[in-house]
Amino acid sequence: MSSESSPPAPPPPSATLTPDQTWLTALETRRSVPAARLGAPGPTPDALARLLAIAARVPDHAALAPWRFIVIEGEARAALGALLAGAYRTRNPDMAPEKREKFAGIMSRLFPAPLAVVVVSRPNRETMIPLVEQELSAGAVCLNLLHGAQALGFAGTWVTGWAATDPEAVRLLGAGPGERIAGIVHLGTATEVPPDRPRPDIGVLATHWTPPA
Fold first, then answer.
1. How do the residues of the chain divide into helix, strand and coil, expressed in percent and rounded to 5?
2. Global pTM?
3. Helix, strand, or coil here: 156?
4. How many alpha carbons lie under 13 Å from residue 97 in its C-beta half-sphere?
5. 124 band by pLDDT with thresholds 50, 70 and 90
6. pLDDT digit string, tens, across residues 23-48
7. Residue 19: alpha-carbon gap to chain centroid
8. Which keywords are on file for this protein (predicted)?
9. 59 vs 198: CA distance, rounded Å
10. Which terminus of the chain, N or C, has fewer Cβ atoms within 10 Å?
11. Is 210 exposed, middle or buried (0-12, 13-18, 19+ CB in 10 A)?
12. Burial (0-12, 13-18, 19+ Cβ within 10 Å), 108
């Protein structure tokens, strides 16, 4: 990435943090916007550099950076979609033709948003850091991308599916041996924000530990 796209240096950390209502409201109201409802404008090169820097500020035991980014934008979106559609047809020869063509069509239109960031999980298996910790760090990167996008005035969605799990599709996306796709994060400007979905009852999910009897 060019020096013109380098993100600004973050402010020094404060010893005392005070509640920020704007930030809290953003966290309390964040929601995903389907890729088909993400239009232009997408993040500029400077905004993208800032987003990736935000994404990388996640818990990372031993500072391994067990993840990397693949950016898909411009004409590359349609080119990759065509390759994924062809791979879907080849990988599913026994599927009913109509069903196969339906899902191949979905693959061909997989990148409708102006920009997508593929977050690749690349755990270091030669360290003592548990694999699950490294994979969770990659998941945190995906969520940080969504929070950063919202803070910059964009919207996004984090998806996986066939394109993120099939070995040939994963290869086409650019992942190598020993790597997995943690998520495909589509980013753009919301053309329509869907209504919020029901949220979990925290009172049911949260308990307080007590000593065993």
1. 40, 15, 45
2. 0.90
3. strand
4. 0
5. very high
6. 899 999 999 999 999 999 999 999 99
7. 27
8. Flavoprotein, FMN, NAD, NADP, Oxidoreductase
9. 28
10. C
11. exposed
12. middle
